[in-house]
Write a structure and sequence with these properties.
Blueprint (H helix, E strand, L loop, with lengths): L16 E10 L2 E11 L4 E5 L6 H9 L6 E6 L2 E3 L4 H6 L2 E4 L11 H5 L14 H15 L15 H14 L4 E5 L7 H16 L3 E5 L3 H7 L2 E6 L2 E7 L5 H10 L8 H10 L1
Parallel strand pairs: 3-8, 3-9, 6-7, 7-8
Antiparallel strand pairs: 1-2, 1-4, 4-5, 9-10
Length: about 270
């Protein structure tokens, strides 16, 4: 009888994404400075920081929306060039922006296949096949979704997020960038989106979660990366820190152990 193999540690696994020494400058402004960050299968990395910290610019590099000035991107251990969003999609990287990029006047199936429509052998839109595929994906992600034939402008914020997520999942996303997915949602819709993210994790999808909501970050993330003035202050396991520690890094740009008592007092006054 052979002994059961011990599970691999993070150090022994190959990350889905490795961004190494990424730099981006706009004129004389360094938006991203020598940033290194990674992401593993079935993991959520909470990417947080104040306005202008560089988190969105960093993710635009990964999504192909803006090239890095220098640095290296590895996908599943292989160095890759991502020059545009098409390159990113071919590497199974999908982005769900805060604005969702949905076409309001058409239904969920039309949005899921927007720009990648299915056609019949006669060259016409295969609306039946697109609706069937949408129902299958939604059945997996959100079984309570039933409004398949109504324009997405009539859907709630949580339902619209579900459509955007379904689109990414259908096209086999392995790496998902989510930009403020619960912004402007009510408590019930926020809970729905959080459940969707947990479902994606169980399917092995790696997620970069950009959020200003510390509650979202602590509820959903495995690790948290804090950016400050273009740099990563630290990447830490969620269980090893408190929300106040994260707030301190966001505001002061210092690791918790480097913060003075005077700075702690100033933070408490701000709170």
């Amino acid at each position: 009888m052979t002994a059961e193999a011990a599970p691999m540690t993070t150090a022994e696994r190959t990350p889905l994404v490795e961004m190494r020494n990424i730099n981006v400058a706009f004129g004389g402004v360094h938006a991203v400075r020598d940033v290194t960050i990674d992401l593993y299968e079935g993991e959520v990395i909470g990417l947080v920081g104040g306005n202008g910290a560089g988190k969105s610019t960093l993710m635009r590099v990964l999504s192909g929306a803006h090239p890095a000035d220098s640095g290296e991107i590895r996908i599943s251990g292989e160095t890759r060039t991502i020059s545009n969003p098409r390159d990113a999609r071919e590497l199974a990287i999908e982005t769900i922006y805060q604005t969702l990029a949905l076409a309001d006047n058409v239904d969920a199936p039309a949005n899921m296949f927007l720009g990648r429509e299915l056609t019949t052998r006669w060259g016409t839109l295969d609306e039946s096949a697109m609706e069937d595929a949408t129902r299958k994906v939604m059945g997996r992600l959100n079984p309570n979704f039933t409004r398949f034939t109504q324009p997405v402008k009539s859907l709630s914020g949580g339902q619209r997020q579900a459509v955007a997520i379904a689109r990414a999942v259908y096209f086999n996303a392995k790496i998902l960038i989510m930009d403020e997915p619960t912004a402007a949602l009510g408590p019930m819709e926020t809970a729905q989106v959080r459940n969707l993210i947990r479902q994606l994790k169980t399917e092995g999808i790696g997620i970069f979660l950009i959020s200003h909501d510390i509650h979202d970050v602590f509820d959903l993330s495995d690790r948290i990366s804090v950016m400050y003035h273009g740099r990563v202050v630290d990447t830490v396991n969620k269980g090893s820190i408190t929300p106040d520690d994260v707030l301190g890094m966001i505001i002061l740009g210092k690791k918790p152990g480097d913060v003075t008592q005077e700075e702690v007092a100033q933070l408490e006054l701000r709170g």
